[in-house]
Amino acid sequence: YPIFWDIQQLSNKNYLLGGKTDEQGCDAIILEINKDDGAIEWEKSYTTGSCEAFKKLIPIGEYIYGTGRFAMYSAANDKFRPVLMKMDSEGNEIWTKNMVFPISGSSRIYSFDMIEDNGLVSVNLGDENGQNLEQSKMQVIKTDYDGNIIFAKGFYIDGKGYNRLEKIINFPDGYLVYGSFKYQGDNSKLLIMKLDKNGELIWSRSYEIGISNIGKHIVYNNGYLYIVGTITDESGDDLFYMKLDVDGKLPAECPGITE
Q1: How many beta carbons lie within 10 A of that of residue 15, not counting itself?
Q2: How far apart, in Å, are the Cα atoms of 136 and each of 44, 109, 187, 213, 224?
Q3: What Å distances lie between residue 242 and 23, 30, 84, CA to CA?
Q4: How do residues 193-220 score in pLDDT, each as one tens digit?
Q5: Which of 144, 182, 225, 256 could bridge across to 161 with cysteines, CB 3.0–4.6 Å?
Q6: Are 80 and 70 in contact (CB under 8 A)?
Q7: Residue 161: which of 141, 183, 193, 144 has the closest Cα?
Q8: Which residue stretches of the chain have pLDDT < 70?
């Protein structure tokens, strides 16, 4: 069965879905669903070698931009790359660009989210020089609407493993990016960073909740950040819900959470 990671509402009120066809031999898939009866208006799939997927779609005017992870003409993990695809309004490819990491090299990079801000800004994770995700770095890449790179920034928490970014939120003075990293064996900490409009780091904060925690989703509303995720502690696994101000600080003392 297909797996969909993103859904957008189009100007005609229909729904645009993006993801992958299935777990085995998967191809990137994009389709438009009629808002009234759920019928498929059109459907397109793309493959470049192994397992491809769209993680984020952005309709802009008569075009659709998609990002995700594509295997670049090989089934090897070290050929996974973050791509930016421009399509027409029915999902037909206009161009696809592999960003930053040459196909000839050895890198394993995944793109997770993208926003529009006088261009397109995406967040990625992966091993820039191999295929070991324990050595992942975090990347933030901005391009113009033709896929030309405006800036590309990488971030790494020294001595920590599996550095990952999964979400980006646009603010008037910069970007808030969110993810996690491993700090003790397989235990993880939630990570939030604030960047300026040129991708330079303003601040970063991590949060210790239980023995290990991973954020699952973040939203901004009415001056606050709201995060839901999972924690592991002595009693087992559970869910957490956290509220932060726009500087990533707890609005009040919260037992069990260490910033």
Answers
A1: 17
A2: 31, 8, 15, 18, 29
A3: 32, 33, 32
A4: 999 999 999 999 988 777 777 778 899 9
A5: 182
A6: yes
A7: 183
A8: 23-25, 253-259
In this structure, the number of other CB atoms found within 10 A of the CB of residue 236 comes to: 8
Q: What tokens does 257 get? A: 């959470």
CA distance 126 to 128: 6
Query: Of 255, 153, 152, 145, which is closest to residue 204 (Cα–Cα)?
Result: 153
Note the pLDDT of residue 59. Answer: 98
Residue whose C-alpha is closest to residue 227's, from 187, 189, 181? 189
Structure tokens at 31: 């389709």
Q: Residue written as tokens 């777990």?
A: 23
Contact 164, 125 (CB under 8 A): yes
Nearest to 213 by CA among 235, 243, 182: 182
Cα–Cα distance, 49 to 51 (Å, whole number)? 7
Token pair, residue 40, equals: 């498929």
Give the chain's count of helices (H) and strands (E): 0, 20
Q: Which two tokens stand for residue 151?
A: 């800036």
In 3D space, the residue among 213, 204, 209 whose CA is nearest the CA of residue 248 turns out to be 204
**In 10 A of CB 150, how many CB atoms?**
14
How many CA atoms lie less than 13 Å away from 35 in the CB half-sphere? 10
